[in-house]
User: What shape does this take?
Amino acid sequence: MGVQSLSNKPIVASDKPVCLVGGAPIAKDAISAVSDHAGAFVGVDGGADHLLAADMRPAAVIGDLDSLSDQARATFHDCLFEVTEQSTTDFEKALTRVAAPMVLGLGFTGGRLDHSLSVLNVMAQHLQRAILLIDREDASFIAPLGQITFDLPAGTRVSIMPLGAAKVTVTGLRWPFADMAMAPDGFTSPSNAALGGHVSLQTDGPVLVTLPQAHLRTAMQAAVRAR
Assistant: This one.
């Protein structure tokens, strides 16, 4: 079977988190480390080669498929879904065709800067989705609109970076602030730190929260959207 046609239904549907794997460099053990948190994996174009190297079978391979190796194309021939539209990135092509309570993104940072920025742009456009980007160092998510609270040990790095205009209040950090107007070209809060215990964040716009990758489970809990 070759490349399959698309319909209006999701290509992959799961009641557990789904991990999208992109083509940017990842650690050798990255996929196995995420497997405890993901119910299924989806190769995003050339990211399918990472799954091939990890001997992991994807639920689907989605994208324009122009970066897919011949070996991955042959191995995963029965689950290829080519999306030829030019107005979206491969990340968005996959994200909008996956139905899951949470989407993890692996292999979307650490490569080309414009690719990483485009992923953040897509995340900001899909605020209703719980999406986390994972790499060797970090776990990043856009905070749900409204208020969230999560616990962290003292000294844990917490970065709060706006992806658009937002009014933000945060407590439980070394440098708290209240009703602060944040914007990509204005006030930001990189490399803040937890005091230990509760961290509370309230926002009315898109802000990216980054924690050390060791706190992935906390990031996943904080990123959950109301259903």
Residues 158 and 192 are 5 Å apart (CA to CA).
